[in-house]
């Protein structure tokens, strides 16, 4: 069943997402890039507010491919109490080495690798993500002006990616300027979740989240409120 991930940047927006029925509350600062990170104290405040009613994820920011810096960011973000940590693989030549460097972090945290349809094809990385212990993978867009995910990859290609990720035991999410009109065509792909920011806002992605837009997204997706099963892997053990 495909869940609704809502990217929010404050306790006030988390309130809207929670009350509108988002399945995952995703902490992100859209003014700082594709995976802009919120300040740690704000992430902690959101986690405290949600209080276990939904899983909370957080992005690490648009970090360079420096394993030590990424490791430190993972640990600092984990200390905020989030359930899932999303980190970007922006650079194809360094992606594999970054994944390998995070094996220890994967033992203690549920990491989601975010790859970008407008940068490179991450499909060859899926087996490595699985064997290194990543919890999941997400396809997004790095440069929002380049178009929506569905402009960059065909539905067939997205479906093959979702299938391969899930066969390897990885949770798989789709995002990247998705609109509510994309939902009917994406639902048959059976991704674990669809991620939204721009479509939930009153104007652009840097504006505030709109309650009515959140409700429309919720109505278009299956209701899925079991925090214990949201984003669970597709196999019993690694």
Broad shape:
globular
Could you tell me the strand content as a percent range?
A: 15-25%
Structural class: alpha/beta
Measured distance between first and last alpha carbons: 22 Å
Poorly predicted runs of 5 or more residues:
234-238
Mean pLDDT across the residues is 92
Provide the gyration radius in Å: 16 Å
**What is the topology, as strand order, of the major beta sheet?**
1-2-3-4-5-6-7-8
Number of strands: 8
Which labels suit this protein?
238 residues; alpha/beta; eight-stranded parallel barrel; 10 helices; 8 strands; disordered C terminus
Architecture overview:
With 238 residues, the protein is α/β, with parallel strands linked by helices. Helix 1 (11-20) packs parallel to helix 2. It is 37% helix and 16% strand. It has helices spanning 11-20, 40-50, 67-78, 92-101, 103-108, 126-132, 149-152, 155-167, 183-186, 211-220; strands at residues 3-8, 24-27, 56-59, 84-88, 111-116, 136-140, 171-174, 193-196. It has an eight-stranded parallel β-barrel, surrounded by six helices.
Write the layout of secondary structure elements.
Blueprint: E1 3-8, H1 11-20, E2 24-27, H2 40-50, E3 56-59, H3 67-78, E4 84-88, H4 92-101, H5 103-108, E5 111-116, H6 126-132, E6 136-140, H7 149-152, H8 155-167, E7 171-174, H9 183-186, E8 193-196, H10 211-220
Parallel strand pairs: 1-2, 1-8, 2-3, 3-4, 4-5, 5-6, 6-7, 7-8
Helix pairs in contact: 1-2
